[in-house]
Design brief:
The structure is a homodimer.
Chain A lengths: L2 H12 L3 H17 L6 H7 L4 H8 L2 H28 L7 H18 L1 H11 L3 H28 L8 H22 L7 H13 L4 H6 L1
Helix pairs in contact in A: 1-5, 2-7, 5-6, 5-8, 6-10, 8-9
The structure holds a DNA duplex.
Amino acid sequence: MTQDLFDSLIAAQKTKTEKQKKIIEIAIKLFADKGFANTSTAEIAKLAKVSEGTIFKHYGTKDKLLLSIILPFVKDSLPTMATEVFSEVLTEDTKTFEQFLTGFLKNRIEFFDRNKEIFRVFVKEIIYKDELKKEIAPHFIKNISLQISRVVEEFKLRGELKDKPTDQVLIYLMTVCGSFFVSRFVLFENYSISNEEVENFFPFVMDGRRNPLSEVSS
Amino acid sequence: MTQDLFDSLIAAQKTKTEKQKKIIEIAIKLFADKGFANTSTAEIAKLAKVSEGTIFKHYGTKDKLLLSIILPFVKDSLPTMATEVFSEVLTEDTKTFEQFLTGFLKNRIEFFDRNKEIFRVFVKEIIYKDELKKEIAPHFIKNISLQISRVVEEFKLRGELKDKPTDQVLIYLMTVCGSFFVSRFVLFENYSISNEEVENFFPFVMDGRRNPLSEVSS
DNA sequence: CAAAAAAGTGAGTGATTACTCACTTTTAAC
DNA sequence: GTTAAAAGTGAGTAATCACTCACTTTTTTG
């Protein structure tokens, strides 16, 4: 996909009529619930109280309707994530790497919970669409990887983290974080995340072993 | 779904004609690649060099064809997993919890790599089908959760693991392991897993912090 | 307010879908 | 070797699919 199409899809979002908003709202619900392939445009039209023609007038094809849901989400959420990592999560109070990760998790849980349905659409469709993967990868690297890399290196310098290659650490961290979100928001859709679970996740994951020395002294 | 249907689908697998084997083989490939909803029975028939009638003669509906792929995989693989956890992974040489988890990861990577395509079908479809989730959950709990729980408790006794509730530890472990498999085998389909990555995963994940005391003494 | 542009409609279209059934071919049992 | 059962066929079917287009309604603009 060209950058032009990407931008035009974003731009199209700016001035939406009530009917368009309703189409998107219903499409998100249905795609999140039943999946893109199992949802017909006729069903979207019916539930959005709109004629099928209106959907195609605005979005051209069913595929472009999907993209006009997913792309703005990606384009908006990734830079926001990058900003918040530094401004809200990594403050003066963040002493340890675990504290940083727990803060990051809390911050993102709040975000993904607000955008739960779009996130579900995103995860369910990115599995199938190679184009979508390729489209999103550079945005992801640019906004997220770079920022987190810096944090990892910062904590390595502070002696908080073992001196493994940053790239590998990044893959490990994304694996662990990604799975937290996907399992809780997509796989177990009605699972409610307790504050305790969030607080304990990284302390256990990053440091689950009982410290032998502190054990001896207690 | 009833236990009867479950068993009958398993039993049907026992005596398969060449055509049936070919149907399953092609169906797995197509479902893994394009997804269940995006694959037509006509396409399966064509590639398997079989008439569409043959598919429906044996499997009745497209849905039952999917189930006759997924259910035997689940029913075979889960008990195998449970057995192997104890016989192959948890040997006398397994001193630490990290060693156990790394052994488990290695063992399962080998397994999922052999069954890569079925695993992809499984992951891609379980997201959509609530029935499938409910069907599989008890098998999962019976075969996996119980076994891993015992290992966790064993290592807690040995003083290797912090004394968090076993249930919560299990959820954390499954999150981390599951994501490893899903990200490597489903999301990044052509990602090749290096031995180094596997060896370093749990040592980093479970103990990523630089030990402050050993640092001082070095 | 008139003209142009944009938004919205819904019946209609050809392609594709999962599935059926009357039929033929192959296999197995005695 | 006959027969019955099982396996396999492929043309046919109704339903559904994404999408179109000639048209009406609403909004915007000068």
